[in-house]
């Protein structure tokens, strides 16, 4: 963490090409993550799409397949929603032993306002077949994945949504982020936004929406972004979907040095997939005692809630372990341990932040 490199916008560089840049999470101090600081997660070199020739096809198991150009999409009734995206591999650096993939710390997550056409409206217009079970979203980017095992030939970035999620009103075919046209790296000109699901579902540079009658077994959702689910006692590879309940401490930073006997405001953000974050508790003694934190943002489904906790730092110098845990609407808290069935993904256990109390208060 000492030789961290930053992009000109101030993002942490995990990989230059394809671009994988992380938000410095300690800099989170607004509800909406500024677009320039929003993490970028790309598997392949960025495709170049032109607004003038852009086409979005909607076909497959539909009665009236059709295509839209950029202007036609922008002329449809639109909606604006706030949604948190978290990369399924966020916080991977904290796993022991280390696992393959970008070594994200806390900042492969962000909260933005997205504007676009509900996917549902496009599916209605196309006349979605009653027996269509999934909606396949295809991006224009192609290449050979880095992660092992690799498919033999170049593939595109494709993700399939269960029908039940695809027809929810929050799923957008978006062309704006925080009130501006999508930046190139965030999927210009058009991307999917699937609130409540890990980031891999929000396909960027979207060019095709295909309804299918059989479960889609693409590389990304069977081999890469998948986990072992036990079904009738047997392990089955299943695609990741809903984001797990998670709270992250933005400040203090890992190994930050704090002054004794002083009020320090511990702060962070929390999100809960398809549920709501109802409470945050903070521990400053490694999980023995917990106290309730205060929310800075209201409940808004699919968007994060920032929180803070005023800590009177101890008089005793030494190393202290801070933890935060979120509770969702069902009353469940984040777990203490990573669920190994998820490998290097869906890391939502309580992450500890070690700090040093030093000097005189
Ligand atoms: N869409 C395409 N076409 N190609 C990609 O590599 N990466 C996915 C998703 N959509 C990806 C994609 C992943 S893994 C994440 S976490 C989000 O985009 C990140 O979105 P962002 O780069 O706008 O933050
Ligand atoms: Mo991701």
From TrEMBL:
Q: Which residues form the Moybdenum cofactor oxidoreductase dimerisation domain?
A: 239-339
Question: Which segments constitute the Oxidoreductase molybdopterin-binding domain?
Answer: 43-220
Q: Which cofactor does it need?
A: Mo-molybdopterin
Which InterPro entries does the protein's record reference?
Ig_E-set, MoCF_OxRdtse_dimer, Mopterin_OxRdtase_euk, OxRdtase_Mopterin-bd_dom, OxRdtase_Mopterin-bd_sf
One Pfam entry name: Mo-co_dimer
Domain of life of the source: Bacteria
| UniProt entry keywords in alphabetical sequence | Metal-binding, Molybdenum, Oxidoreductase
Matches recorded under SUPFAM superfamilies? E set domains (SSF81296), Oxidoreductase molybdopterin-binding domain (SSF56524)
Q: What is this protein called?
A: Sulfite oxidase
Q: Which organism is it from?
A: Mesorhizobium argentiipisi
Kindly list the organism's lineage: Bacteria, Pseudomonadati, Pseudomonadota, Alphaproteobacteria, Hyphomicrobiales
